[in-house]
Amino acid sequence: MNNFNKNISFEKEVTRVHTGLEELDGLLAGGLPQNSVTLISGTPGSGKSIMCFHYVLEGLQSSEKCLYLTSDERIDSIVKQANELGFDFWPAVEKGQLKFMYVDLDKRSIHKEIEDEIDNNDYTRVVLDSLTPVAEVPVWVSGVHEIAPTEHSKMTKEMPLGSVPTTRTHVRHILNILSKKNCTAMVTSEVPEGSRSLSRDTISEFLVDGIILMDLDMTMDRRKLIIRKMRATKHTLKPHDIAITAGGIQFL
Ligand SMILES: Nc1ncnc2c1ncn2[C@@H]1O[C@H](COP(=O)(O)OP(=O)(O)OP(=O)(O)O)[C@@H](O)[C@H]1O
Ligand SMILES: [Mg+2]
Fold it and tell me: Ligand 1 in contact with 245 (CB < 6 A)?
């Protein structure tokens, strides 16, 4: 068997989850690998949330149960923003097929709340929009073994840690929770303007299975989508021209 055929048979073994964008699925050998976590990375306004809207809509249309975790308290305004682009999420929210859940970063129990929600439901698609403030929440330890935030750590002597290994453990824990059971996750990540990094925390890009970069070329007034990595997938690294229109993301 030559190398090309080996790749094809390998890719066939992976169950693929459609992204909601047919052209993107085509570039990803059919979609995201099931049970994976993909970082949707980009500067403000680059279309990260809109990418997640496509992903959720695709799930709803296939009768899947979807969870949209947001660090934005104004859930109504997210649903309204989606609605303006033609994504009508209210009926699914009312039916209980889609849940928007506010991740309150002031609480120390964010790991547990997200984990309980996923454990107690049959979600197949999870979105975390965005990982950046979650990754930046102060991490606390109490005792040698425990990495918080947890309820328990409230009751014991606390020590904030900002070290790379602690942030890494915290981010890895969150990402592991998101791909539990049959879930396949999209996680948005803010990249500061002009940065060469793929996330503001500079760690999550190493822990995820895939990275899709939403790029803005301000001088040329153009948008590009780049698949930077995807586990178990042979893909091009070539930038693809996209546009955001009244109906969401379009490949040009
Ligand atoms: N109807 C529309 N037609 C064309 N472009 C639009 C339309 N609606 C929104 N956009 C574009 O989409 C952008 C918002 O996309 P989105 O909210 O997905 O970005 P984001 O990467 O999630 O931003 P943030 O980092 O601020 O959360 C707007 O800044 C605008 O450029
Ligand atoms: Mg957004």
Answer: yes
What is the whole-number distance in angstroms between the Cα of residue 163 and the centre of ligand 2? Answer: 27
Distance CA 178, CA 130 (A): 13
- Report the distance separating Cα 151 and Cα 172, nearest Å: 19
Say if CB 226 and CB 237 are below 8 A apart.
yes
Segment 65-87 mean pLDDT? 94
155 beta partners = none
Options 3.40.50.300, 3.90.180.10, 3.50.50.60, 3.40.1380.20; CATH of 3-104+123-135+164-247: 3.40.50.300
CA–CA distance, 78 with 13 (Å, rounded to integer): 36
Each residue's pLDDT tens digit, 117-127: 999 999 999 99
With contact defined as beta carbons under 8 Å apart, do 43 and 193 qualify? yes
For ligand 1, atom 1, name the residue with the nearest CA: 246
Retrieve residue 228's tokens: 């930077």
Q: Is 50 in the pocket of ligand 1 (CB under 6 A)?
A: yes
pTM over 0.85: yes
What is the crossing angle of helices 164-178 and 110-119, to 10°?
20
